[in-house]
Specification:
This protein has about 220 residues and is α+β, with helices and mostly antiparallel strands. It contains four helices and twelve strands; from the N terminus they run E-H-E-E-H-E-E-E-E-H-E-E-E-E-E-H.
């Protein structure tokens, strides 16, 4: 994976008022740390940062942070967001080396159509949408693809069955479910409702018959 250069300005003052001033200027307060480097307060251009992470790698994009003429290979590890606007308000950049193993969360993407499941009116559930993997920074995959075209109702795809690229491993329990093809609960609910309605109709008909018989008997007695 090729890194993307991002210029960072050092020497920013800390504090909420200074952070607000930086954000009003279209920049994002940040901190860089790792590999013996003391935590360094910096800021980056908000638009350039969004553009750097807009590619397929997303948050796992390698970033070459340019500070005072020096380049630092980093990953954007922690993004703090505004609770309402969802904009990034602070970033933690971690310095990494190309030859070290790092952890990263990679999205799990489903491909294909589970026609056999659709034919039985089943549903495809995905309880695990991302996987924590371990790899060199340049080998972190953009995504992990699971082909569900051959999936059938009652089948579960587990972590141990995922095809990870060479040099990529995970510590997640291999028995943890990633994709489940199950019978639709909606179909079951509809069937239950149909049975309940049929039973109610039968009860109503039986009650009406009883009432009619009682009325006939009462009429005969009066006569």
């Amino acid at each position: 994976m090729a890194e993307i250069s991002l210029v960072a300005e050092p020497g920013r003052a800390t504090g909420s008022s200074e952070s607000k001033r930086i954000r009003r200027a279209g920049r994002i307060p940040a901190v860089m740390y790792g590999h013996g480097i003391d935590a360094l307060s910096v800021s980056v251009d908000a638009r350039e940062f969004r553009h750097a992470l807009s590619g397929d790698a997303g948050l796992n994009q390698l970033l070459s942070l340019e500070i005072d003429g020096k380049s630092h290979l980093t990953l954007a590890r922690v993004l703090q967001r505004h609770p309402v606007r969802n904009t990034v308000v602070h970033i933690d950049f971690q310095v990494v080396r190309r030859d070290e193993i790092v952890a990263a969360d990679v999205p799990i993407v489903l491909s294909g159509e589970a026609k056999a499941v659709e034919a039985e009116r089943g549903v495809v559930e995905q309880p695990l949408t991302s996987l924590t993997v371990h790899a060199n920074p340049g080998n972190i995959p953009n995504e992990i693809v699971v082909d569900i075209s051959a999936l059938e109702v009652g089948v579960t795809v587990r972590v141990g069955e995922l095809r990870l690229p060479a040099g990529v491993t995970t510590d997640v329990d291999p028995e943890e479910a990633v994709v489940i093809a199950a019978t639709s609960t909606l179909e079951g609910d509809v069937a239950t409702l149909d049975e309940a309605e049929a039973a109610a109709t039968a009860d109503a008909a039986g009650g009406a018959g009883t009432d009619s018989a009682s009325a006939d008997k009462a009429g005969s007695e009066e006569s």
